[in-house]
Amino acid sequence: MIDGYIDDPANHGIANFSVDELYKLISEANANRMDVAAHAIGDLALKQLCDIFERVLGEDPWPEHRHGVVHAQITNPKLLERMKKLGLQAYIQPIFIDADMEIVNERIGKERAGMCYQWKTMRDMGIPSSGGSDCPVEPFNILDNMRSAITRKNRKGTHVYLPDQALSTEEAIRLFTSDAAWAARDEERRGTLELGKLADMSIVDKDLFNIDPDTFTSVRVLQTVVNGITVYRS
Hints:
By secondary structure, the protein is an alpha/beta fold. Helix content is 35%, strand content 13%.
C-alpha cells in the first residue's frame, strides 16, 4: 500500500513479486499475446501494475489485449483513470465485502476504506469487470456473490458497505455470465443464451429480477446444463 496500516504506518503490506520480476513476466506474456491477470489488493500494487503495463504496452503495443487486475480493492480516482486509459479489466469478487467491511476502517482508515471495491464507479467509467468466487478462499456460491454485489451488505444483513457502489440485478447477473465470458475471450461461445453458442445455463426456482436480492441465497437451483449436458438436477 502507498500508505501503511493505521496502527502500523511502516507496514505497507507484502509484495509477492518485485517490480523487475513483474515486468519480465508481463512483458513475456504480452509478447506472446497472452492476457495477464495480476492480483493487486493494495493501491501501491495497483500503481506498480499500471506503471508496468504502461511500459510494456509502450514497448510492444497490443491494442487487442485484455490484461486485467484481480481484486483491485484499494483504489483512487487517478488509478481508476489509469486503468481505463490502459484498457485494463477488473476481476472482482463481491463476496469479499462480507469480511472486509468489518475490519477495513480500523486497518486502513475511513478515507481509504471509502475507495475500496469501487464496482459501480468502474462500470460507469467503462472499465470492464467480471465476477468470480475466489473459491476456496470464499464459498463457491454465485447467488451469494450476486447478493453482495447488489446489496453491499454482509450475510447477516446488519451492515452496508458503500451502498453508492452497489450494482443493479442485471449488472450483477452479467458479471457472472456475459462479462465473465468476455474476460476469458469466450464471448463467442458462452455467456449468453443464443443460437450457435454452447448451452451453459442454470434453471432456478425464482425470477431473480422480481425478488428481494437479500433472499438470493434461498433460491434453489433446479437444473444445471454445461455444454448441452445436464450435470445436475434437483
